[in-house]
Amino acid sequence: MKDLSQPPHLSHQFKPAKMPSYVITGAARGIGFEFVNQLSAVSENIVFALVRSKATANKLTELGRPNVHIFEADITDNNALKSAAAKVSQITGNSLDYLINNAALVKSERDALTLSSYPSEELLTKDLMDSFNVNVISVIHTINIFLPLLQNGKAKKVVTITSGSGDLDVTMATEFVISAPYSISKAAVNMVNAKYAAQYKSEGFVFLALSPGLVDTGTRPPAEELEHFMAMIEKFKKVYPNFKGPITPEESVQMQLKVINEITVNKTGAFISHKGDKEWL
């Protein structure tokens, strides 16, 4: 029998839902910026854009949207990440719904080299270590630092932007031999995603390694590398004969957000593309 001696909790009954909150790393340009742009276009969302320097985040500033908060935080700087997390906590009331790990390192000036064609052992070691530090270790630290806020969130979704170049089967099928440090680091971060997914599935978390496709971000490889790049595209076409060329950041993010919104805890740990499957291009 209902206890009528206690007053009804009307304030709880009519309490408005919290605004969905997003943290996006590497948000100054390219895919990261487009995530901010599309998510912040919905006024109910609150978006935290993490950038290495506000001085180079002009596009974000020019959005002029009150639901976008820009914080300086290089993902290799744990203190900066902790400071950003503290600011997010103050604004959201100690919670976070979505973390999108977009920041990454690509050594484009040596992207055409293979593991055996580096001019020196020292340079190869440096590129491997730098790629692993940014694309793997820093992603782990970012997740750990924001994890307490995510545990208080509703969505509990952690998305790490990865690459189809981290797929072993596709590497063999396409003979994709260049961009080795980047590809190796992306294969490693796919395992990071799986480790977190296995650990936090029981808490309702969704960890997703998501490839954005081949995206035209407005940058071009150096002239001496363009020939290698085009040759690799031709090899990819043998596996993906319907591939028409790079897509825009706008197209990629639209497709990625559809995947992010639709994925459930039953698919946590997945490594999939912007198409929701293993079709990387």
UniProtKB/TrEMBL annotation:
Q: Which Gene3D superfamilies match?
A: NAD(P)-binding Rossmann-like Domain (3.40.50.720)
InterPro entries associated with the record: NAD(P)-bd_dom_sf, Sc_DH/Rdtase_CS, SDR_enzymes, SDR_fam
Q: Which UniProt keywords apply?
A: NADP
Q: Which residues cross the membrane?
A: none
Q: Does the keyword Coiled coil apply?
A: no
PROSITE patterns named among the record's database cross-references = ADH_SHORT
Q: Which CDD domains match?
A: carb_red_sniffer_like_SDR_c (cd05325)
Q: What molecular functions are annotated in GO for this chain?
A: oxidoreductase activity, acting on the CH-OH group of donors, NAD or NADP as acceptor
- The name on file for this protein is Unplaced genomic scaffold CY34scaffold_131, whole genome shotgun sequence
